[in-house]
Amino acid sequence: MAPHLVQPGWRFWRQAACTLGASVQHRTWAGTPRIPRPGSLWGATTTSPRICRSGSSTSARAPEVTLTRERYPVRRLPFSVVSREDLEAFERVVPGRVITDPEVLEASNVDWLRTVRGSSAVLLRPRTSEEVAHILRYCHERNLAVNPQGGNTGMVGGSVPVFDEIILSTALMNQVISFHDLSGTLVCQAGCVLEELSRHVEERGFIMPLDLGAKGSCHIGGNVATNAGGLRFLRYGSLHGTVLGLEVVLADGTVLNCLSAPRKDNTGYDLKQLFIGSEGTLGVITAVSILCPPKPRAVNVAFLESPFYVLIETSGSRAGHDAEKLNDFLEQVLRSGLVTDGTVATDHMKVKALWALRERISEALSRDGYVYKYDLSLPTERLYDLVTDLRVRLGPQAKHVVGYGHLGDGNLHLNVTSEAFSPSVLDALEPYVYEWTAGQRGSVSAEHGLGFRKRGVISYSKPPEALRLMRQLKALLDPKGILNPYKTLPAQA
Ligand SMILES: O=C(O)CC[C@@H](O)C(=O)O
Ligand SMILES: [Zn+2]
C-alpha cells in the first residue's frame, strides 16, 4: 500500500518507509519538476521493470548484437593485424594471461547495453603497470591498436573494440596499495572494483567520493578514465577535484608516475587532469590516488512523490541536528503544496532499498528492447521540457520516453525505448536532441563521456578551437593513434 500523508511530520514519514517500493512502480513522471533541491530526481516507467545485474550480459537467448562496423559508417584505420608472433610475444610478458578463447572474448567485445560489438581476437590481462608498459611499448612499435577495458559498464560504447583492437583488461590489477586513515587518501590499482573499495574504506571510517549504479562491476580506473559522475557528485564534486594523483602508461610504454600527490601541489601543469575523462585515448590509467571523505554518521533519505519522484539524501555528523533540518524542509514543502506524499528512511537497509530503485532504472529500461540514451546538462528549469516535447514528436514510434537523472546537477538522462533498433526513431531523435541541447547552451554528454557512439557530436558542446587543441594533444601523446581509436574525437575526413 502506498504511504499517504494526512499531516506533515517526519516521524510519520519514517514509519511509511518500508511500504514505498510497491508504491512507485506504476507511476509515470510527467510535468515540470518543481523542486530545485539537492538530490537525484527520477521517474518510474509505466511498466513494472524486472531487474538484472549490471555488467557484461551474455544471455543465451539474447539476439546477436550487430557488429559495430556493420551498423555504423566507420572505416578501420591502417593498424597492423595481430600475428602468431605477436601472441607469442604477449605470452612472454603476461604468461597464461593471453586470452584467445572466442567465448571469453564475446563478453569483452560487446557492451553491457548490447548496442555495439567489436571483433577483437585477443584479450590481455596484466597484473602490474610494468606489464602494461611492456605491452604498450610492443604495440606501439608494431602499430597495433589497443582498447583499454575496465568493468565494461560504460554507456557510450567506449570500453569495447570497434574492429580488432587488442583488449587490455585491468581486471587483475585489483590491489589496494595504501590507505592513510588520517587524510583519507586511498591509493590503489586501476582494476579495483568500486564497491570493494567502498567496503575497504568504510571499514576504516571513510567513504568513496563517488557512487554509481554499476558499482558492483565498474573499475576505479574506468571511473577516472570516463570522469564518471554518479550519485554523490553534488555533494563531493567531480573526480577532477577528488583524484589526487594518477599513474598512467603512455602509448609508447612510458610510465608517468604522478601518483604520490599531496593534498596541495602547485608545481607546473596538472597533468593528471588530462587523463581524467580522456576515455583511455591519451594513456592507460594503471593506479589512482583518491581522497575519501569521512563516513557521515547520520544519513537520511527522503523520497517525495507525485507527479515527480525525488530522492534526496542528506549526510552529516549529528543525527538530531540533521533530522531537525530535514523535518523543517519537509514541513515547508508539504505546506506549500510542492509535495503531496513521501517517506524518509534512516535505517541503512531502507536507505539502500530506496537507492536501489533509483540505481536500477537504467537496467530496467534495457528490458524494453533498444534504448536510445542521451545524457544532457540543461538549465534546471528546462530539464523536463525535452521529455514532454519528444513524447509528442515520437508518438507511438517509442515504447517509452523517460526522463530521470541528477536534478541537483542539472543532468537529465533522457531514455527512449523501442522494440528494436530503428533508423527512423534515430532520425527523429538526432540531431534534434543535440540541437535542442546546444540551444540551451547545455552539454551533450554530462557524465557518460563520448566513447564511440557520441564522438561525432562533440561540436554541439565545444568550439572548433577546443577540438583542434584536443587533436593536438592526442597527436602529442599518442602519435600513432593506437590508444582506444575511434573514440572521443570525431573521425577526420
Ligand atoms: O542509463 C542511463 O541513461 C543513466 C545511467 C546512470 O548514469 C544513472 O544515473 O543511472
Ligand atoms: Zn547518471
From TrEMBL:
Region: Disordered, residue numbers: 35-62
Domain of life: Eukaryota
Cellular localization per UniProt: Mitochondrion
Feature: compositional bias, Polar residues: 43-60
Signal peptide interval: none
A GO CC term attached to the entry: mitochondrion
Keywords: FAD, Flavoprotein, Metal-binding, Mitochondrion, Oxidoreductase, Transit peptide, Zinc
A GO biological-process term: malate metabolic process
Required cofactor names: FAD
Class of enzymatic activity (EC top level): oxidoreductase
GO molecular function: (R)-2-hydroxyglutarate dehydrogenase activity; FAD binding; metal ion binding
Gene3D superfamilies named in the record: 3.30.465.10, 3.30.70.2190, 3.30.70.2740, Uridine Diphospho-n-acetylenolpyruvylglucosamine Reductase, domain 2, Vanillyl-alcohol Oxidase, Chain A, domain 4
InterPro entries in UniProt: FAD-bd_oxidored_4_C, FAD-bd_PCMH, FAD-bd_PCMH-like_sf, FAD-bd_PCMH_sub1, FAD-bd_PCMH_sub2, FAD-linked_Oxase-like_C, FAD-oxidored/transferase_4, Oxid_FAD_bind_N
EC number: 1.1.99.39
Catalytic activity: (R)-malate + A = oxaloacetate + AH2
All residue ranges annotated as the FAD-binding PCMH-type domain in the record: 116-295
Family label: Belongs to the FAD-binding oxidoreductase/transferase type 4 family.
Annotated function: Catalyzes the oxidation of D-2-hydroxyglutarate (D-2-HG) to alpha-ketoglutarate. Also catalyzes the oxidation of other D-2-hydroxyacids, such as D-malate (D-MAL) and D-lactate (D-LAC). Exhibits high activities towards D-2-HG and D-MAL but a very weak activity towards D-LAC.
Name the record gives this protein: D-2-hydroxyglutarate dehydrogenase, mitochondrial
